[in-house]
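Teaching soon. Invent one.


***
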Amino acid sequence: MAKNDFGPPDFREMLPPVIKKNYGKWVSHDIPRPGVLKHTSSTGDVIHSVRVASPRLVSSDWIRDISDIADKFCEGFVRFTTRNNLEFLVSDEKKLQPLIDELDKKDYMIGGVGLSISNVVHTQGWIHCKSAVTDASGITKAVMDDMVDYFTGKKSVPARLRIAVACCVNMCGACHCSDIAIVGIHRTIPRINDEGLARACELPNVIASCPTGAIRPRPKDKSVDIIAEKCMMCGNCVVVCPAGLQIMDPENDGVSIWVGGKVSNAKGGPAFSRLAIPYIKNEPPRWDTVTAAVNNLVEVWIANARPGERYGEWITRIGWEKFFKMTNLPFTDKHVDDFTHATTTFRSTIQCKF
């Protein structure tokens, strides 16, 4: 393939020789120990992938360290998964145990394979994103500290469990399709600064930025009005016009928790997450209420789900009514989906399970 100077590089150039040789010929894999996958080709060739949790936001020293480990044990081959797991690709089986020993020695956390909690995927949060409602990396650290034994395999779970954290409802993380999702939310509409809007912002762009049509022009003031009933408090308009619109509110901003989403086609098809807890106030640095809520959701699922039953599949079997009762969560008006486009998603049957 001809080389060019734009776009992503050809992935085939980065494959380990054994994967390139056996491309399309891999027939099976098994898990010899937590965090390790053994892949076998129809030719008899084998490669091991050793999965390690990463914090996602990493330092250059950390990158150098994992690169040195990959050079020493994996001929330099290492990759990241879509959920920010790190995988060392070991072609020489004699180097597998020495690699595991080296990772243990340096306190890298091996796990996240098979029936386990995978690494928590999260968005940028306060450390980088200008529209973050909450600190995604901080919540991820607090939750993962409590979930570590489920990642490493010391404690078992009925099926795979994917947890995600998004610092706002725009969700550049995988929150809409994760078993448990923590989503930052605003609860007040943007505050309008007429002078800032008139001086620094293009009104057509501000109006067009609203996904629900909640922004209306106010030409006499070269400003806008926001229809509160239509505003979903996503903050898109604030990104377009930070000089004229502000939405951050330390007293009212916080997170919501959603459950039951997945991407997999196994058993049932892919599914969107649905609201479980409407609001928890931001509590940095350890988010004790959030971590306690996630622990409760995980432990109830572990105690009651059947083997191989993902979170949403368990809820579908027992019914949402029983889910709220078993998790001791209140059902409120916030759980009633009355948004403009909700006809495609809300319950359209009177059948209930109690």
